[in-house]
Amino acid sequence: QKEVEQDPGPLSVPEGAIVSLNCTYSNSAFQYFMWYRQYSRKGPELLMYTYSSGNKEDGRFTAQVDKSSKYISLFIRDSQPSDSATYLCAMKRGAQKLVFGQGTRLTINP
Amino acid sequence: GAGVSQSPSNKVTEKGKDVELRCDPISGHTALYWYRQSLGQGLEFLIYFQGNSAPDKSGLPSDRFSAERTGGSVSTLTIQRTQQEDSAVYLCASSLQGLMVNEQFFGPGTRLTVL
After folding, report:
1. CB contact under 8 A, B108 and A43
2. pLDDT band at B24 (very low <50, low <70, confident <90, very high)
3. C-alpha angle with apex B104: B100 to B108, nearest 5 degrees?
4. pLDDT of B35-64, one tens digit each?
């Protein structure tokens, strides 16, 4: 069993829809939870991060962490075609090492 | 400002040949990471360099894989006697030491195809 599980999709929704992306994990030592966005043929870029449980909002994006359930989510409101990308969750243990989910490929249809 | 750069962007090689992949991190970043991303898979950690400390090689899949970082800057990932299962995108990232979040900045990757 992988430490971080993420549904690879693909996920296709109409423009303007609310998107929910999720990851589960097994290691309770994880403290920092991150979402990376990766456009085709590009490297991932950090979108949002949260520390411990709770919500964090940044514009149309909301990151949510539930440590009791070992479950994290990323919500995208008013989705745009430019949001089409692969979204990777990542979690931090120890000093430096990130553990990534498989990534969910998202397409927003105009 | 320049980001992380990697070369070559694409590499096609024959099974059994050696390949070298290069990474130029962001200037001033003391930490450097190599990852492998296979089709439809997440990022698989390979190796991590931090300053003058001994590298964390725990993710290297076999002794055919090695990496070095010269002068605390440029890094080279070498794969000897390549196999078809080595085909993947190899991503390099760098980060500043000391930040709690330790944001990693990624390069565009090298797409390796082993025929």
Report:
1. yes
2. very high
3. 175
4. 999 986 789 999 999 888 889 999 999 999
- C-alpha–C-alpha distance, residues A99 and A35, integer Å: 11
Q: Does residue B30 contact residue B51 with C-beta atoms inside 8 Å?
A: yes
A→B interface, C-beta within 8 Å: 4, 6, 8, 32, 34, 41-46, 49, 51, 88, 90, 92, 96-103
Residue pair B55/B66 in contact (Cβ under 8 Å)? The answer is: no
DSSP B66-106: EEEESTTS-EEEEE-S--GGG-EEEEEEEE-TT-SS-PPEE
**B76 alpha-carbon distance from chain centroid:** 7
pLDDT tens profile A59-107: 999 999 999 999 999 999 999 999 999 999 999 876 657 899 999 999 9
Asked if B104 and A98 come within 8 Å (Cβ–Cβ), the reply is yes
Q: How far, in Å, CA of A7 to CA of A88, rounded? A: 10
Strands laid side by side in the A4-6 sheet: A4-6, A19-25, A71-76, A61-66, A54-58
B42: Cα separation from own chain's centroid: 15
Instruction: Please count the residues of chain B.
Output: 115
